[in-house]
Q: What sequence folds into this?
């Protein structure tokens, strides 16, 4: 039996769907919208409050500064001239093979210390070994023929002696005597010639041995390997050949004991530089490390393009931290009198401690973690420092790094 839809018993018609019963009450709809609005307003207020707190915290955070101490200038040599350059080793070599060959062994790595004569790499020496073996065999064969000639010469000498006796008795003719003498002399000449060939064979052996030795690449001096230019299986050659498939170098070695400084000095100031002059060097990698040095030599030629003269400077004491090609700034020291009108008294502070404000030179002192603005009188710059003639006392801490908008009385945090 199938299920049939019910009908109206009075009219016999099927009931109609009442769509009006699905409507949402307007009062409930209004209440829902009001709740959403309140939630949105609260979210916006919370976001604004959080942003305000963040801005306040950012704008009111304690500035962090770095400080330096005002010190009295040291007595002794003063800075005459500043220049910049690089650490340059005088003993640096790119080791290459004397012959073209295939690399069969590499026995070093970058950063490795090697002594003079250390075997850096080997090349395929099979052809050179065969040439050496051939030269030795030829020399031995030539030398063996001398033994045969020496036996013949011994017999010829006996025949000559016998011929001389018979000729003295009138039995042997003069012709037979001459023939015996000629035979002995000929054998002596052959032996001398063969001996010279043996010497030539020895020379060929040495040449072949040198070819074998050329397959072994050794360090020409003691130093540190700073570059590895080849690997096993590659072809190497003393000249560039074979496009990009042939290397011209095996390794680059530097003798760290030969490190020195080379700087270019403007030719207008080269008169201030003297041999053996005291110099203070500061590596870019170690800005707080002052290295005592001295002038080795002034290269007697000028660079026309840059209008500079090259100066060589030696370290008083070498250090493992000093590496080739490091950037370095140097200060040439001397005992020239102070500039005219400059008082000898005063204190030295880093140049970046002095600020220009409204036409005045000021510094910020740090006292009890607060700033104190101080107007100062400045003198000449001495290298990276400035002479303060008035306004500071020895031992005062001045700000050398921090925000640009510092002000008097502001609380700060010192970065140690």
A:
């Amino acid at each position: 039996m199938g299920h049939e839809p019910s009908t109206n018993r009075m009219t016999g018609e099927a009931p109609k769907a009442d769509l009006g019963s699905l409507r949402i009450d307007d009062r409930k709809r209004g209440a829902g919208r009001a709740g959403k609005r309140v939630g949105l307003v609260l979210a916006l207020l919370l976001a604004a409050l959080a942003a305000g707190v963040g801005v306040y915290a950012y704008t009111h955070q304690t500035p962090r500064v770095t400080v330096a101490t005002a010190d009295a200038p040291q007595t002794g040599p003063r800075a005459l001239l500043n220049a910049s350059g690089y650490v340059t080793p005088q003993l640096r070599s790119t080791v290459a093979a004397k012959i073209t060959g295939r690399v069969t062994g590499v026995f070093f790595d970058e950063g490795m210390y090697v002594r003079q004569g250390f075997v850096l790499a080997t090349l395929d020496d099979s052809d050179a070994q065969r040439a050496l073996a051939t030269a030795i065999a030829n020399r031995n064969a030539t030398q063996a023929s001398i033994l045969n000639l020496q036996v013949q010469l011994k017999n010829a000498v006996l025949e000559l002696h016998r011929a001389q006796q018979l000729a003295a008795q009138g039995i042997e003719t003069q012709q037979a005597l001459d023939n015996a003498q000629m035979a002995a002399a000929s054998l002596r000449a052959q032996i001398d010639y063969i001996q010279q060939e043996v010497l030539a064979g020895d020379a060929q052996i040495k040449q072949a041995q040198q070819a074998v030795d050329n397959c072994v690449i050794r360090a020409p001096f003691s130093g540190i390997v700073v570059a590895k230019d080849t690997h096993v299986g590659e072809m190497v050659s003393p000249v560039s050949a074979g496009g990009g498939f042939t290397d011209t170098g095996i390794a680059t070695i530097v003798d760290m004991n030969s490190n020195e400084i080379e700087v270019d000095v403007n030719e207008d100031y080269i008169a201030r530089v003297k041999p053996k002059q005291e110099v203070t060097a500061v590596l870019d990698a170690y800005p707080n490390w002052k290295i005592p040095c001295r002038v080795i030599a002034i290269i007697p030629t000028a660079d026309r393009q840059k209008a500079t003269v090259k100066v060589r400077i030696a370290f008083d004491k070498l250090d493992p931290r000093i590496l080739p090609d490091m950037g370095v700034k140097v200060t040439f020291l001397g005992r020239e009198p102070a500039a005219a009108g400059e008082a000898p008294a005063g204190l030295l502070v880093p140049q970046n401690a002095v600020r220009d404000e409204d036409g005045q030179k000021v510094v910020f002192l740090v006292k009890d973690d607060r700033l104190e603005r101080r107007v100062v009188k400045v003198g000449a710059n001495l290298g990276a420092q400035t002479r303060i003639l008035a306004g500071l006392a020895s031992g005062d801490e001045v700000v050398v790094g921090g925000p640009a908008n510092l002000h008097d009385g502001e609380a700060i945090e010192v970065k140690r």
User: Anything to note?
Assistant: Residues 1-12, 338-343 have pLDDT under 50 and may be disordered.
